[in-house]
Amino acid sequence: MYQRRLSRNQISMIHIAKNQIGMSDIEYRDMLLRFGVTSSKFLNAGQWDDVYQYLCNCGFIPSHKSARKSGMHKKPARSRQFLVSKVKALLTDMDLPWGYVDELSRRICKVDRFRFVPKNEIYKIITALRKQKEHKEKPKALSFCQPWAYAILHMGKRIENRSRIRWVRGEFYIHASKKFDQAGYEWISENIGSLPSRKDFDYGGIVGIANIVDCVESSDDIWFKGPYGLVLDEVSPLDFVPCSGRQGMWVVPEDVIKKVWEVTQ
Predict the structure, then answer these.
(1) Which of 63, 132, 164, 234 has the lowest tally of Cβ within 10 angstroms?
(2) Enclosing domain of residue 106
(3) What is the pLDDT of residues 190-205, one digit of tens each?
(4) How many angstroms separate the CA atoms of 223 and 188, rounded?
(5) Is 70 exceeded by the pLDDT of residue 39?
(6) Structural domain tally of the chain?
């Protein structure tokens, strides 16, 4: 049976992993022999998966696809390796790109890229990422005017337009604010479909849950207006739980979460 050859990128990934974890040439050859080959170019797809998993178990942390754009695909100087590994691990845990760290570097250290941050200031970036991780683990919500919250839950709206790029990903609660968008109501009615009357919407509370899976700059989706759009998935309505909202992504109070759990039991 014909075995598809590995791509150059796959072979390169094996060597990158070898160098990252500090594997000697002798250890590398012994590893390949355990998987039945003498060179990585002889691996088939199944063997490559096994070798890749083995290297990850040995401590290899693959770079995010954004690493090259940020200049972080290259091995850092020896004096920075430990600190950079801390940053990379935090990004991996939160599934964030290196571009997010570049943004932090501009805001905190006043440099264009993380790779230009002085060694004695990297701790500032690590501290900010740790705080972000703690914040990310708390339940969040986004507030939407009606009829936009209704459109997400019941009319297939899977793009939420934003004025700037957002790195946030993951689950969040959909909060219907007390405001009503008359222009939005007319646009949806004309372009998408009929809506309930204004008085029949829920206002001022949690109404659903969804997952942010991406942030795009362009889309053929009729809901996309730009300049950026959060891509939503796994959208589910919930029984209404009253609570106050805020601008931006906000942490849902514990007492509100308890009520949400109670009504969904």
Answers:
(1) 164
(2) 67-136
(3) 999 999 999 999 999 9
(4) 9
(5) yes
(6) 3
Helix axes 25-34, 45-57, angle to 10 degrees: 130
Instruction: Choose among 159, 259, 144: nearest CA to 202.
Output: 144
- Measured CA to CA in angstroms, residue 11 lies from 55, 189, 191 at distances of 13, 54, 50
Closest CA to 246 of 181, 184, 152, 173: 173
Domain check: are 248 and 154 in the same one? Answer: yes
Whether 146 maps to a domain, the answer reads: yes
d(CA 160, CA 144): 10
At 200, list the tokens. 């029949």
CB 167 within 8 A of CB 215: yes
The H-assigned helical ranges of the chain are: 8-20, 25-34, 45-57, 67-70, 81-94, 98-104, 122-136, 148-154, 182-191, 254-264
Regarding whether 155 and 193 lie in a shared domain, the answer is yes
Residue ranges of the alpha helices (H) in 35-97?
A: 45-57, 67-70, 81-94
DSSP-assigned beta bridge partners for residue 142: 174
- CA atoms within 13 Å, Cβ hemisphere of 20: 22
120-157 pLDDT, tens per residue?
Answer: 999 999 999 988 887 777 899 999 999 999 999 999 99
- Give the whole-angstrom CA distance, residue 68 versus residue 9: 13
